[in-house]
Amino acid sequence: MQKVNLLQKFDSFSDHWAPRIVARYNQNEVRLAKLEGEFIWHQHDDTDELFLCIEGVLDLELRDRTVTLNPGELFVVPRATEHRPIARTPEVKVLLIDPKDMPNTGDEATATRAIEI
Amino acid sequence: MQKVNLLQKFDSFSDHWAPRIVARYNQNEVRLAKLEGEFIWHQHDDTDELFLCIEGVLDLELRDRTVTLNPGELFVVPRATEHRPIARTPEVKVLLIDPKDMPNTGDEATATRAIEI
Question: How high is the ipTM of this complex?
Answer without folding.
Answer: 0.95
